[in-house]
Amino acid sequence: MKKLNLIFAISTLILAGACGGGQSESTEQAASSDETAKPVAGQAMIEDNESAKNIVQVAMGSADHTTLVAAIQAADLANVLANNGPLTVFAPTNAAFAALPEGTVETLLKPENKSKLVNIIHYHAAPGTYKDAFLKDGMNLFMANGSNSKIAVNEAGEVTVNGANILATIQATNGVIHVVDQVLLPPEK
Amino acid sequence: MKKLKIMGVGLILALFVAAGCNNQNSGNSGALSNKSAAEKAYVAPGEYDEFYAFMSGGFSGQLSVYGLPSGRLLKVIPVFAQDGEKGYGYNEETKPMFNTSFGFVPWDDAHHPELSQTNGETDGRWIFINGNNTPRIARIDLTTFETTEIVEIPNSGGNHSSPFVTENSEYVVAGTRFSVPVPQKDVAINSYKDNFKGALSYIKADEPGEMKVAFQILVPGFDYDLAHSGKGKSHGWTFFTTYNTEESHTLLEVNASQNDKDFIAAVNWKKAEEYLAAGKGKDFPTSYVHNYYDESTHTATSNTVETVKVLIPSECPGLIYYLPTPKSPHGVDVDPTGEYIIGNGKLSADLTVHSFTKMLAAIENESYEDEIDGIPVLKFEDVIAGSVQSGGLGPLHTEFDGKGNAYTSFFISSEVVKWKVGTWEVLDRQPTYYSIGHLMIPGGDSKAPSGKYLVALNKITKDRYLPTGPEMNHSAQLFDISGDKMELILDFPTIGEPHYAQAIPADRIVPNNKKFYPISENEHPHAVKKDADVRVERDGNVVRIYMTSIRSHFSPDNIEGIKVGDKVYFHLTNLEQDWDVPHGLSMMGANNAELLVMPGQTETLLWEPKFEGVYPFYCTDFCSALHQEMQGYIRVSAKGSNVPLKWSLGED
């Protein structure tokens, strides 16, 4: 039976292609039994070049955040971070990831460590839009993995989260991104 | 067994490929013919329909949008009735859309949608629809799917033969179903034959903001039922059906069905333009209202027009002719070549087909059998091309598939009949459930029909779907007409009453779809584009709250210093710049509806607080994970109190 199904699937593909029946765009996607490189369909896959950029699109456009983007994709969190939000994401730079003990990033990106990676990335996202003005000294910020991070604001008005400095803040359609110079490590549960 | 199975599959496959890969236009079997009805109508999750179908909402006042072939309801566009869902007709910016010479008329009877055309083909810019009760025509913009213009038609009662478009959208027409005294005056009703007139209006349609009556032709008091403009060789002419040539004013059911033949009125509008240029148009004083919604200010404004140009047929030879047509003809349809003019004689068993070429010859030769008020009546035998002996009863509408075939709806015998243009032979008939009114083929009334699908729009539903009390929504059936015989593939209910419908290939609309309003282009006088400009201002008892919304808060969200008896205007600007993220705003106790503000847009809600206290407002459209937190409070103090005006976000 399995073979029959495969034959039908492939034949549908051939028919769709050969007969020029190209009114609907994604016939190939639906019928394909190829499971390799295609990410799960979701809001991250919506083609929209007109709207302002969401958190994932901003991150993907940043040369300084290629490690973070790789981590997001390995953790399968692109759709979550492209969703309506709103989210506040602390985005460690490539340098921040490089400062971790040698081999840490490599290990985390392995498929068997996915749940650890998800936990760490969730610890960088807080539900809500916390622009600078709303981050108060001493505040416990609730993060998506269930733990809190600690906000501090010095006299000069500079904000840190768990001691990491905020280097820049970027508005996205579904929230705000604070670029930080350290990777935030979630507390042990 | 396994070997047999695989061979069997191989055979089926071979057949599949052989049959399925035929030229899609092959006569014997359409490209879809090997699929089941379910497969033909099925649009898989995540995929798009092939066509947008626009169906009139009839007495709902609105215009519905469906996908074909799935039959999925995509949207209900508010046009002639207030709509709480979009705040249409409730927010300050769109209330003016309902202005007429009779004041604010927040409902009308929406009958016939008509897509804009360029060179006789649907172009996806706009769709027009008529309001039959307080005669009006609306324009809907197909980049935003919003109503942007509504114009009243003067000197008219019921513009039923409306708003049919000319080949390049030069005009949309409005012919009157109800003759009335022109101008209106206090006379006895039975003076109908002396005092009542019909009016055929041509409204300029190709320029948004300029949709006004270019001219009207005053005609004998018949009922002008439907119309279509000519195409190709007959471009420049419009054809209107008439019934009640008996000129009866009571019990029309009996009295308007006496004459053997009524007329199709043929109007040469290019000639009308010549007469206007020559100064033959009389200036009749009148008063009709034109309303236009400006997309950059997000606001509708109304202006009253005080005069209209009227042409009198007896003074304008060659302007209009009557073609005798049996019997109380309803739809008049012009085939894609522009040669054949079909009169669907509602009370006749047969379809009358006139020839445009013969009509021109009859005019040239002055083959007249009569004259009414200076309008020549052409000899029936000299204009007729043929008649379709259909065997059906009660023909109403005909559309074409672009392959030389015509499809006519028959109300009384509840069927669609397919026949050949030119030979008039019947090729196929299919029942409809029940009592079909109109039928629609995408592009079926244009120069270039897409002859794949046909939708039957029925008047009676009864047991077709799960019952919902004494009244059921009207039923529609979708047919595959790509082959020789029609095949029923889907059955779905519609909103209101679809009197008429239009469909267009999706790719004429999708690329131009507007995703949001760029905030830099927002010219609303009370827009707020950045946090620093958020404020509340008082001028006497008028208070204006300049507010913004973005996931997931309003700014300001705490307001104090409002007093009982104030007129409070919430001017809300949605600062999002992302597709499909509107924010709503509703105020407790406000005597209207919510606002639903699109990204980059500004809209205004009027609230007149009556009682002291503190009252909530909130976002009504689920916008984000923290939508439930998107709220605010307003403090209302007594009239004459001196609680200071205060506004804030996030402060204690």
Please tell me about this protein's structure:
The complex is a heterodimer of chains A (189) and B (652). Chain A is α+β, with helices and mostly antiparallel strands. Chain A folds into two domains: 1-38, no CATH class; 42-180, FAS1 domain (Roll), CATH 2.30.180.10. Chain A contains eight helices and seven strands; from the N terminus they run H-H-H-H-H-E-H-H-H-E-E-E-E-E-E. In chain A, strand 5 (159-161) and strand 6 (164-172) form a beta hairpin. The radius of gyration of chain A is 21 Å and the shape is globular. Chain A starts with a helix and ends in a 9-residue tail after the last strand. The model of chain A is unreliable at 15-37 (pLDDT under 50). Chain B is mainly beta. Chain B folds into two domains: 51-512, Methylamine Dehydrogenase, Chain H (7 Propeller); 522-648, Sandwich (Immunoglobulin-like). Helix content of chain B is 8%, strand content 42%. Chain B is built from seven helices and 45 strands. In chain B, the strands form ten sheets. In chain B, strands 6, 7, 8, 9, 10, 11, 12, 13, 17 and 18 form a ten-stranded mixed β-sheet that branches. In chain B, strands 41-40-43-44-38-45 form a six-stranded mixed β-sheet, with no helix packed on it. In chain B, strand 6 and strand 7 (121-131) form a beta hairpin. Chain B is globular, with a radius of gyration of 28 Å. The model of chain B is unreliable at 16-29 (pLDDT under 50). The A-B interface holds A 3-4, 7-8, 11, 14-15, 18-19, 21, 23-27, 29-30, 41, 48, 50-52, 54, 83-86, 127-129, 133-134, 173-175 and B 5-6, 9, 13, 16-17, 20-21, 24, 31, 43-44, 46-48, 50, 515-516, 550-553, 576-579, 581, 623-626, 650.
